[in-house]
Amino acid sequence: MERRKPNPETYTLAGDLTVNRMGYGAMRITGEGVWGPPKDKAEALAVLKRAVELGINFIDTADSYGPNVSEELIAEALYPYPKDLVIATKGGFTRTGPGEWHVNSHPDHLREALEGSLERLKLDRIDLYQLHRVDPDVPYEETLEFLQKVQEEGLVKHIGLSEVSVEQIKKAQEYVKVVSVQNKYSVDYRVWEEELEYCLQNDMAFIPWNPMNANNEESMAKLEQMARKHDSTPHQVALSWLLHRAPNILLIPGTSKVKHLEENYKAASISLSDEDMQELESIKPFKPGY
């Protein structure tokens, strides 16, 4: 049986926020090492505006991108926001320099991060607030109690998690309704397969980051071969595979260039056959211990 255009084209997050499954990740509009302002601010603003023009209405960011820079640029480019635009942000890292990331999910830090995000994004409430990382130095229960509290305060509408196991998702569900999980996942990095399936079975969005890992020659060779078949790029094929993989997957490919944004968006129009999917899924995925 031939696969058609990956449907549905939209996903309704938590039953009340319908978004285009091809979203945008706003990490790359910052400086090198995800630190400081972008080299070309005008282009960064143009990317955000073009995303909305294309029909993208799900933008993923974080207070740590810059830090602060990504959120500030989103507000500068798009505020006042279109009514259907969903901005998801995250908290749970502190930054000390380019490429330097330190997990910090203590409630005091998360409170400061959330209040900063609200101010920078010019919002009274975050539609989707995601815990960027579980902090091994902070009792998970304390972090979850904080998320529960800010949701009760009305500062956050929905709550998501990032880089978590099924066990950690289930623990979080004792405190809050988890509506999304953002884990690293791609055609050649499928460590979190169990978590994807759990989300699919429990009406949660799965938001893969680094959607084209391509860390080995085999994966690149097959992606390039499939790209030639579909008159596309390997990156577009990798994105299309994710859209076909499961209907709850929301994509957030990031870029700092309008041209690349438009190329990414075209991936949504690629139709992969069952044979194509089997060929791509035959790629030996990365697993711990390889």
Automatic annotation (TrEMBL):
The keyword Oxidoreductase applies. Keywords: Oxidoreductase. CDD domains: AKR_AKR13B1. The keyword Transferase does not apply. Residues 21-283 form the NADP-dependent oxidoreductase domain. SUPFAM superfamilies: NAD(P)-linked oxidoreductase. It comes from the Bacteria. This is Aldo/keto reductase. It comes from Pontibacter anaerobius.
